Amino acid sequence: MSYRTTKPSVRIAALALASLALAACDGGGGGARTSVHAVGSSTVYPFAKLVAENFARSNTESRSPLIESTGTGNGINLFCSGVGPNTPDMANASRRMKESEFDACAANGVTEIVELQVGLDGIAFASRQGGIMLNLSPETVYKALAAKPFGKDQTAKTWKDVDPALPAEPILVYGPPSTSGTRDALKELVLEVGCNTDPAMKALKDSDENQYKQVCTEVRNDGGYVDQGEQDNLIVQKIVGNPKAVGIFGFSYLEGNLDKVQGLPMNGVDPTYDNITSFAYPGARAMYVYVKKAHMRAIPGLGAFLGEWAKSWDKDGPLAKIGMVAMPADAMAANAAKVTELPLLTKADLAAK
């Protein structure tokens, strides 16, 4: 329901009902919901799951949080659907919330959002150990995967068709779906960068942004790029089974499967922990969790669960051990402060990114 088209009296009544529903949860005694519920990114999922498991061990009086892998876009849509015990408390995201999503939240009464950056990740390009080796660049990836590279029909069949230095092997890339934050990051960090190597594309962005987005970020659907859904482990399985295939997934999945897969360099830079921390690797990105402040008091354990995140994201902490890249020290301190101060995210914050 959009409050933009709802009468003020109805809007107030709806918010009052949501407040009453939340109040019913408070204290955990016979309420509608007594555990934290988080949805979102498949990339953030294994990290959130580990934090939830450690939280449950440290807080035996609380129920273990429910963590669902829905994809970043779907997760934020669920998060923004309203307030109350039938809506998620948190959204995990492998890219930052969009201004349009912030507006959708506000339209549905989700007006107090706290944003935490929890770590760094990278969009890793990989192949099977001993499989195809490609020294990629944003431009070659764009030429290989775009539906209409630089506005022209996609004709490339092999990697050599897009770069003479690459092998004459068929282009076959398994990657994330349109609802995934990894796909959004692929568009922003790689495809658009490659597209913008043509000055005409930069000019198109100024004259027709919708057309620019279509030309620069729409991926081919002729079999060169295969959408594997929100299951990054399935992409790993696909490339392990085909030595000529390339996969795109979060760095943590690369690091967790180095016995089976190898990272492919981008601009000559390998996808490694240090190269992501320094942002030397072109696919480096931040990961986030979003929290409804209205749920903080009503949902038992939500505040303590955020505290568990802050205890876990150190360079030598449990999340680093399963592939998360720790934030720089200043970012870590700033986000640890947010756990206790709970500052509200504003649209201006998102616009300033």
Topology:
Elements: H1 8-25, E1 37-40, H2 45-58, E2 66-69, H3 72-79, E3 90-93, H4 99-107, E4 113-128, H5 138-145, H6 159-162, E5 173-175, H7 181-195, H8 199-207, H9 209-217, E6 225-227, H10 232-240, E7 246-250, H11 251-255, E8 261-263, H12 273-277, E9 284-292, H13 302-312, H14 318-321, H15 329-341, H16 347-351
Parallel strand pairs: 1-2, 1-3, 5-6, 5-7
Antiparallel strand pairs: 3-9, 4-7, 4-8, 4-9
Helix pairs in contact: 2-13, 5-7, 7-9, 8-9, 13-15
DSSP strand count: 9
Q: What is the terminal separation in angstroms?
A: 29 Å
> What is the fourth-level CATH superfamily of the largest domain?
Periplasmic binding protein-like II
The CATH topology of the largest domain is given as: D-Maltodextrin-Binding Protein, domain 2
Reported for the largest beta sheet, the result is:
9 strands, mixed
Q: What is the number of helical segments per DSSP (H or I, 4+ residues)?
A: 16
Name the shape in a single word: globular
> What number of structural domains do the residues give?
2
CATH class of the largest domain: Alpha Beta
CATH architecture of the largest domain: 3-Layer(aba) Sandwich
Task: List descriptors.
353 residues, alpha/beta, D-Maltodextrin-Binding Protein, domain 2, 2 domains, nine-stranded mixed β-sheet, 41% helix, disordered N terminus
